[in-house]
Amino acid sequence: MKISWSRIWCLVAFEVLRLFTTKRGLLALSAFATIWFIILYYFVGSASAMVISPSFESMASQLFGALGLTALLDWPVAEYAIYWLVALYFFPSFALLVCSDQFCSDKHRGTLRFITLRTTRAELILGRYLGQLLIIAILILLTSIATAILASVRDVTLLSASLQIGAKLSLELLIVVMPFIALMSLLNSFVNSARLAIVAATLFFALGPLVLAFIQYQFGQVFYLNWLFPGEQISSILSQSSMATSQYLLPLIQTALLLITSHLLMKRASL
Amino acid sequence: MSLIIDVQQVTKQYGDKTVLNKVEFSLEKGAPVALVGPNGAGKTTLFSLLCGYIQPSSGNISILGHVPGNSALFGRLSALPQDAQLDPRFTIAMQLNFYARLQGMSNKFAKKDTARVLDMVALSDVVNSLPSELSHGMRKRATIAQALLGSPEIVMLDEATAGLDPANAKEIRAIVSEHASEVNFILSSHDLSELERLCDQVLYLDNGQLKQHKTLGNNDSAGFLTLRMKQHYSEIMPAILQIPGVSQVSMTQDKEYLLTISNEQGKLAIEMDLLTVLASNNWSYAQLINGKTLENQLF
């Protein structure tokens, strides 16, 4: 299968344009900015002050200890401990919403008929996926920079440490989010609207564990089917106590599998 | 002459329903080709197969030596698919520019080519409008413009003039005939007189089967004249039958008569005699067609 990177770049650039030039994209951006202003101002800013305050130290240790997150308290930049806790759950959910229309409405409207005369279906899926990934990467980076600024305002000597930890967490967050965007790509190949894609994703995450529990109960055996679910490793990486490569391999493998399945479905789909 | 489209035994089924049944034809480079047939005959399905939007259940299709959807066809084959709409969130110019970039044009050239095709369909004034701000006809012209981007070798237009006002439909027909020498157009329309004017070949589909594949202007209708009158005249048929060389006259539809000529060599004399008969009786005619109309050839 021959892939043209110039065509993929065209698709990626158009996706970014979609976010910054369309009414819907700008609305999503404003909602995102508002939510993150609240998170940074009220949670990251004030909560980090609590974490480093001697009077709250024992309470914070107990709380983080109960959650298995004591490693986070050792970070030099406390703001990032709170940022990590919030971002790790926020960005996957946000990605499910923002990346819900990768090509389903274009397929429904017939716009894909114009596009597929100029690009292969594999390029379309990959281009749209990478476009969404780039958008989420930009947003992650922006929130990470904002957190670094917040920490530097408190103590300017933390700037260099903030930038280092911010870059590391941004990359880790991006890897976490990757299979979520790929899942929406897969759902887009058999639904006709963004709304339906969100409903399908909700059902997948809500009913999936129940189905797994039922299978386990029925056969009395663990099939490791939970590895099919994006975000399965989130609880393990939350504590940041160790850097197991396997915990980052899983989302990458999930992403590849989801995108390949999406391509196989779209390859023979009627447009 | 080089083969541009080769369709071999193509069948398309949706469940138990056979939409196209062992369709087989090949088209060579040349004048526009008309694809005609009643509603539900399989015209749009055939267009979709040729564009690679759907896969045949069986059979083979080759376009310029490649299977439909192959990247080698990008920029060489373009189409106006029926009912396909542009993205309502982007301006016409942005979308056409994007398509041009996908075809491999540089940003500068893409903008230039977008302006060129929009000018061809008289939409230069609305380049920065959203599709929702345009009328149905204007949106249709914008989608025709996307099919003209770059220099395609084959352009398939499915019902291109449907829903357009007469002036714009005429403009589209002018674009087709103007570019017919360098582009291979394949047109589907219910307007047979339009296809008759533009096309040299006709593919007639009925009930999923290719019933006829004929070249217009060949000898099939050489022994006929079609006469269209402005009004109905009750004595016209016996009068025409009196003209030497006219063996039969039949009324094909209201105010339209098909004359069967027994002596093709004397056709010019028959035409002159016919006009003389009309003039002497003060009967006004609308049109005299050499041969049968496409409608009469097909149905």
Question: How would you summarize the topology of this molecule?
Answer:
The complex is a heterodimer of chains A (271) and B (299).
Chain A: H1 5-21, H2 23-52, H3 54-66, H4 70-73, H5 78-98, H6 104-109, H7 111-115, H8 121-154, H9 159-188, H10 194-219, H11 234-238, H12 246-267
Helix pairs in contact in A: 1-2, 1-8, 2-5, 2-8, 5-8, 5-9, 8-9, 8-12, 9-10, 9-12
Chain B: E1 3-14, E2 17-28, E3 33-36, H1 43-51, E4 58-63, E5 77-80, H2 92-102, H3 107-120, H4 136-147, E6 154-158, H5 166-179, E7 184-188, H6 192-198, E8 201-206, E9 209-215, E10 224-229, H7 236-241, E11 246-253, E12 256-261, H8 267-280, E13 285-290, H9 294-298
Parallel strand pairs in B: 3-7, 3-8, 5-6, 6-7
Antiparallel strand pairs in B: 1-2, 1-4, 8-9, 10-12, 10-13, 11-12
What is the approximate shape of chain B? globular
Q: Write the element-wise H/E pattern of chain B from the N-terminal end onward.
A: EEEHEEHHHEHEHEEEHEEHEH
Give the strand line-up of the largest sheet of chain B. Answer: 5-6-7-3-8-9
Helix content, binned percent of chain A: over 70%
Strand content bin of chain B: 25-35%
| CATH fold group of the largest domain in chain B | Rossmann fold
Which CATH class of the largest domain in chain B is shown? Alpha Beta
Over all CA atoms, what is the radius of gyration of chain B?
Answer: 22 Å
Mean pLDDT, all residues of chain B: 89
Structural class of chain B: alpha/beta
Greatest interface (CB-CB under 8 A), with counts per chain: A-B, 29 and 32 residues
Uncertain regions of chain B: pLDDT < 50 for 5+ in a row?
none
State the end-to-end CA separation of chain A: 20 Å
Largest sheet of chain B: 6 strands, mixed
Poorly predicted regions of chain A: none
Superfamily at the CATH H level of the largest domain in chain B? Answer: P-loop containing nucleotide triphosphate hydrolases
N- and C-termini, Cα separation of chain B? 30 Å
* Number of distinct beta strands of chain A: 0
